[in-house]
Amino acid sequence: MSRTASSPMLLSDEQRAAIVQLAADAGLSNEEFLFRASLSLLPERSRRSLKDLLDRAIQSIESTCAAIDETVAFVEASEQRMAARDAGTQGSQ
Fold first, then answer.
1. pTM above 0.70?
2. What is the 3-state secondary structure (H, E, C) of 7-76?
């Protein structure tokens, strides 16, 4: 997921050091650690809503990819038919 907004935070040196250490221990960037930590504070209902939204987005993406694959296959078959037709036309001239 592409994130485009920034949210600067004012932290004490101790707070920043704690975040840096916790993020490193988790193998995450500071930003990803804070993002995941903030998600864990959402009420269960909000987390379910977010998961449902993401599930619907994934289904939509999969459906779109399938439609694109069908369209590409149709175009390829059409191009093959046109090439065969053109080859037959050129052979009779």
1. no
2. CCCCCCHHHHHHHHHHHHHHCCCHHHHHHHHHHHCCCHHHHHHHHHHHHHHHHHHHHHHHHHHHHHHHHH
Phi and psi angles of residue 8, each rounded to the nearest 5 degrees, phi first: -60, 150
SS3 assignment, position 23: helix
* pLDDT tens digits, one per residue of 13-37: 999 999 999 999 999 999 899 988 9
Residue 50 CB contacts under 8 Å (≥ 6 apart), including other chains: 39, 42
Spatial CB neighbours of 10, under 8 Å, sequence gap ≥ 6: none
